[in-house]
Queue: 4 jobs
Job 1
Amino acid sequence: MDVDAVRQPATPPTLSELASSLVSGSSGVSSLSYDYEYDEYDSRERVFLVAAALKRAPNSKTGHQYSILESLEELGRLAETAGLEVVGYTYQMLDELNPRTYVNTGKVGEIAKAIADTGVQTVLFDDELSPGQMRNLERALGKLGVRLCDRTALILDIFSQRARTREGKLQVELAQADYQLPRLTKMWSHLERQGGGGQVKGMGEKQIEVDRRLLRNQAARLRRQLEDIRGHRKGYRDRRAAAPIPVVALVGYTNAGKSSLLNTLTNAGVLAEDQLFATLDPTTRRVLLPGGQEVLFSDTVGFIQRLPTQLIAAIRTMLERGFSVADGAPCTLPPPLLCACMDDSERNANIVAALVEHQVDMNEAHVEDGFTPLMQSVKTGSLSMVGLLLRAGADLRRTCKNGRSALFVAIQLGKTAAARSIVSAMCDAKIDVDELRVDNGRTALMEAASRGQGDVAAVLVEAGADVSLVDDEQRTALMLCLDNGHASKKLFGLLMSEASINRADQAGKTPLEIAISRKSMPVAEMLAADGRYDIGKTFSKTTPLIHAIVNEGGTRLVRKLLDRGASPDEVDPVDGKTPMMYAAELGESQIIHDLVKADANPRLELEGGNGWNALMFAARHGHASAARVLQNAMGIRPPERTRMVVAADGGKNANV
């Protein structure tokens, strides 16, 4: 896809809009760009994002990999944190990254066109570029007057803006020096060698050699200063060891809420903003627990995907300060308790992966609702987290305080994809999907059917769920589906078996009776036409045919019941009426006609009803059309018809 498609919104797009507009699952290259009226009062530097990813990324131990879309969204948030304005982006899926220009040459041309269209000042790449890649891209894009920057340089810039302590600033300066050292090649190729200092003035050092020497000297000086600081920290640890206090270290992805949690617990007043790396320097506060135990809560620097190697030492030092652990030396302090702070985003799956690899309990329940991490991940819709926890061996039988397992939580919240993953994991673990029930005796299939979740029901049936099982009120999944007003033919097709369609619940109602009562006539017709249905089975209070007529089931349902062998002259056990009498009472001329074709006797009289028949019911209710059908079926003469009409209503409807 070209970069030609340029949208023109009135305002710059937000990062979430940028991320959501990326087309997932696209093959080859996908590009998008934005153009809009420039705000003369917005002095932020405008940047264009470029990302590339392998079509087949190597699998990690945990099975989780960041997608290119997630990585692009994170890069955009980093840019905003650095005070930049994201105006466009592009990405490319490759078999392998181009060693010369990072992306393929065709994509470089598209980037050049996007630069001209959007008027950006900087192009930001989502990986650390090699010196050769940076040099080749500068040749291709530098003539457009833009600066090139990679992910590592951006993060280093953010760290340099946010570092507050002396040690933090030294660590960032050291990381910047290590990053710049291999990138000095040919930056000074326009300068000659410096002249020698002796009488015979020969060629001296190249400018690049001078710069390298200066950077090495600067790095060595920074390392000496950092070693002095580590010595001071060792003394602090020794004093801590004399009176050890448990440490709770708040860890998590950057901007996951660690500082906010520390402020809530301790009133620490730490800066808490909706930005990546809002705080870098650890903050520790003492908290007195209700039982009298003193605990140190420590806010730590946040994690991020693909942290630059130059900053690993800096992060390690910051964590060392937060945890108060020794730097490679034996430590007598108790290990810190890691408290993982996570929101509902997919990025936290990497944090969970690290915790799993360190054998952290993945089944610990929340105090208030009893939710396990798996249930919480289902609730928030984090599918990556759900998959990771399932692979880590999350307890699928574990229930929360209301007695529901993770599968029931997924069904209750309508999380179809999560439910599908859990059912698959249950099959792999040889767990019967009907084994888990809630307090009313419902299986997972019954719960899904009662909520009309056909996709989940299909997965459960495929996994071996028994459609004939009943709950505490003797209701099958089919009955629950009908009783809750769900009328999906696909769902009913899954739930219908010889046992399920003929079973009656605690009140004596069959699925057909429930379907007719709920006006689910298409489903009722399916049941009536099913050869496995026992047509002679009576309902709780009447017969199927009479129930269909009384509840206005329609001629199609009546015909199916008659075709299946329902007796047209059956008598209602409650009031002694026949189907013909009910149809006449309701004025259903077509049903009367169908009953006559099925050899119903229109002359049958109401038991104990003083000789009343179907025609008299039609006359009583003023249904002229039904009366004509009946008189023709009965073959009666006008005088006889008149006597019956007059007898029915005292002459009020004699005109019938």
Note: The domain at 536-656 is CATH 1.25.40.20 (Serine Threonine Protein Phosphatase 5, Tetratricopeptide repeat).
Job 2
Amino acid sequence: MYSQGQGVPQDYVKAAEFYQKSADQGFAPALAALGEMYIQGQGVPKDVEKGHGLLRDAKARRKAQEQKSQGAAYFIMGTLYFDGQGRPKDLAMAALLFQKAADQGEPRAQNYLGVMYLKGLGVSKDAEKGCGLPRDALAKGVGSQEEIDHYCPQ
């Protein structure tokens, strides 16, 4: 709004303040906009190096957000095959989709896939993968230590 003067008087200093608040929250478009402002010296002291750094951060953040979105999509598709919702139940396809999601860091998929390996559902039984994947998910706040302890005694 302030950078373009849309509905308010154009004010690059205020725009930079708002972009900074959003950038502090990790919002990639704000990082990019703030980077451009530093490169051009609009509302902030001109600092090309800092601007390029913010643009690199924005690009990395966007990539991470895209991967997270892809992981979530693969996970949701996997649950449809796992449960047979709207398509025939296909545990092998569910495992494939959960693996793609797990590769993107999706913790729910790591948890599901771990159980599938422990029980041999759609995949060959593999205790190492079956215990490791849920532990990875638990580190991200998904799953329960009790369940891991039950299936994977040390």
Note: Residues 2 and 14 are 6 Å apart (CA to CA).
Job 3
Amino acid sequence: MPSTWSATRSATGPPEPGVAGSRVFAYGTLEVGELVEALVARRLPGEPAVLRGWARSMVRGTHHPGIAPQAGSETTGTLYSGVDAAALAALDRFEGELYERREVEVEIAGGARRGALVWVVRAELRHVLTGEPWDRERFVADHLREWLAGVSGPWQR
């Protein structure tokens, strides 16, 4: 099955007019609605989605994951919609220099495909990915409170 990754360039600046720019695929800490709400100062509607051709693993020395291209892999996550330019800017600041924003295509229930933006580990920094799986429940139980204490949204304008 071919990868659903649809872009080879990173997205920069505000989203271009169109549907993909209003959607974000989250596969790690941004799947935690409470954290997203603290970052962008509102609740974003979301639904389960899958990104094919990308593998999620822990970032060395941290409590969060990253993704990198890997044939045959898939990453489950949440597809948020209604992401405006202000929310996207806050999420860009939160993600920082380890990641770059990319345009991708994800699959939602029933097999429908949707364009979205996602933050992936920059190619030159992928050596920090450990290959170890990320555990969302462990993050929430052990680290979410600490992360929320460091958030003042929309995230550090």
Note: The beta strands are 24-26, 46-58, 65-80, 99-107, 113-121.
Job 4
Amino acid sequence: MRRAVKSLAALSIVAAFWCGGAPECKAQPIGGIIGFSATNYNVLESAGSVTIPLWRTNGDANFATMQINSLNGTAINGNDFLFTSANAAFPPGVISNGFNISITKHSTLQPTKSFYLYLSSPSGATLDTNVPPLVSSNTVVTIIGSLPTLGVTQNGPEVILNWSGSWVLQTTTNLTGPWTDLPAASSPFTNLIGSQPAAFFRLR
């Protein structure tokens, strides 16, 4: 009996040494912990989509799954981005995964917006409860609004303006305004030099 007690004590010491004495290491199942690779991701609206990586650490022996969920912020699901809750799967030995979120390209100028992602319902692994976490169970996605691009070329007395999207061309003779909509203008738009006082153009 004494020999058995000594053996168990020795195994405990070895296990604590292998984990570095960290309590979170001792508590993790062999499936490890799964989380986002960062606490914030930035994407240009013009990119059309963003890939969000997931990492698994502290063990990879189990088949593990976890549900990915979204939460509206200033960016609204169905209007600024498109995402349906889904499960991420990690077969044994797999330590990374990822998923795509569609970003809506608006035809009008948009401010920078953000929304949230969080993990839930772990199976075969666990969420990270460390402070700070090794891999976070929630993150923020920031959509950076894209400015329209107005291309300008000259062909003799003609100035040709090009753009894409459903933007409205505006003009003025003074940069301080007022600006006037040209609702009938479409790309490419041609303006004759000298047909009017100095003209400035922009999109809205």
Note: Confidence is low (pLDDT under 50) at residues 1-21, 23-28.
